[in-house]
């Protein structure tokens, strides 16, 4: 399993602050990529039924297959979530999309996605100097090749996380050509992992290629935010999972401990801290 050095982490976090996104230096390990693809294919086939060319999006995908939960446990992502949120972060959202050239022309976040920022919504959340703080960090796992250029790659506007969503423009008032200088099209090889700030403007055009686009988005937020696309697990639903998986999925605890961790809570994800950091047990301000 790849793991980032402190230096790589510093560089990626600096990119996140400046550009609103970064690309992990290593591709996803082939075995993990293959397992996630097999899981996506299995769930997609079951959901499609006879509509074999339909695009399929599945929310809270981590509960559908252990390989998709393994993506949520990908060490470089957890290291970077730790960097931005400290030890008290958990899973905010997970979904996958399996998107062929489906010919629907829809921009419904299934067949394609229009330009937007994820929020958080409503946009009435506090801003500092006009910029929205980082409330969740989202990782896109692109599991199929997109280097051919017309597969409906994720696109972002570099630095847009520092501005209001689409500069406050609506409908045809927003023209992506006006931002051509900062437009980044992530026509990337299979196994590429891209992360972005939730306020980053992003979109994905329809897949116009013969290669089905398959990817997962997995995001993390502080434990004092509720997950976006699932309820907290009920008794028994986390049986057999690792301590880290149970933490990410939100195992039961008394209300105050979502906000004020006990020393053992601070320890749960402690192995993802930077090696140069003070050992977590010695940090008093989490008491
Ligand atoms: O279709 C895509 O890849 C983009 C998805 C998206 O915009 C989102 O999850 O907010």
UniProtKB/TrEMBL annotation:
<keyword id="KW-0479">Metal-binding</keyword>
<dbReference type="InterPro" id="IPR008775">
    <property type="entry name" value="Phytyl_CoA_dOase-like"/>
</dbReference>
<dbReference type="Pfam" id="PF05721">
    <property type="entry name" value="PhyH"/>
</dbReference>
<dbReference type="GO" id="GO:0005506">
    <property type="term" value="F:iron ion binding"/>
</dbReference>
<keyword id="KW-0223">Dioxygenase</keyword>
<dbReference type="GO" id="GO:0016706">
    <property type="term" value="F:2-oxoglutarate-dependent dioxygenase activity"/>
</dbReference>
<keyword id="KW-0560">Oxidoreductase</keyword>
<protein>
    <submittedName>
        <fullName>Ectoine hydroxylase-related dioxygenase (Phytanoyl-CoA dioxygenase family)</fullName>
    </submittedName>
</protein>
<keyword id="KW-0408">Iron</keyword>
